[in-house]
Amino acid sequence: MMKMSRLIFLTLIICSMSAFGQENSGLRLGVAPVGGGLEMEEYWVWGSSVIKGEDGKYHMYASRWPKYLKFHPGWMVASEIVHAISDTPEGPYEFSDVALGARGAQYWDGRSCHNPKIVKHKDTYILYYMGSTHPFEELTEKTADQLTLSSKWCIAGRWGKRVGIATSKSPNGPWKRLDAPILDVKPNSFYSFLTSNPSPLMKEDGSVVLLFKGRSYREDGLTHTDQFIGVATAPSYDGKYTVVEDEPLFSSEKFGEVEDPHLWSDDKGFHMVAKDMTGAIGNFHGGILAHSTDGIEWVLDKNPIAYTRTVTWDDGKTIQQGQLERPFVLVENGKPTHMFFATMDGPGGFGNGTKTWNMVIPLK
Question: What are the phi and psi torsion angles at 73 (to 5°)?
């Protein structure tokens, strides 16, 4: 009888693990509203995160930087995080204020704030973001052509990227920043060069699982690797963040190279959507899906393709977007309802677009 009970128990475990390995996160994209989301005429706009406030309105936090700078690498040296508001998730969102702007080269995030992700715990809004700085003169419309990937601004701005938080009791601010990042680099690790692209998930007990992008120095001590995705945890949003493993969750050697991870949860566990950098998992620059029971160990969904760059709009057009990145899933009442993207027109490639905006697609 005891042997039979153990056999049944083991069978249940195996079936449970099998189901976990085949689970699908269940995102089905609908039709994108033309004119939804956020666009700003004189700015490159990128990477949004949305939360519903106690006022019943939807508050978007997004990155922007002036269009007289090249899209890439302009964001490394001049991005700021803005706050926009809408009565509905689809928008359009109206610009309200600058949530996190430049505050001086002496601060770790003094020149650029980017990649916002908003969460709330009890009465506190927590804005996760990437910050960077540089000690050089500010670029102007007259000197903007000096900004290149090999320029002093870009070298310092990329090298200085770190993950931090700002807090507020209201989605309208004011925001209190920290004097130091929450996730610094570590010598001889997969994040020895930089930390960036934070994606937090706040658990019910207030503890945090945080996915992030890292790069490491190569053996020459000068150049850096492609991106890795790692995971850190903290007992609370204002506690100590500890990177869990010495090896990354995602890399070109494990699953495939991805970036822009975004986390959400439901009664089935944790879910992730991320950008497929090479197409090794699904589609080149499309989205992939993975899931986890604890936020630490991850498995690709049985069907890992979340989306492609082809979007159907509510005016009847179907367009392959030049870029479709920074996926963000809005969850209301425990159910994913909308998916937001940063997008660009043109044939593809950061240097080939003429405008960017943050778009939204309702989920079926």
Answer: -110, 30
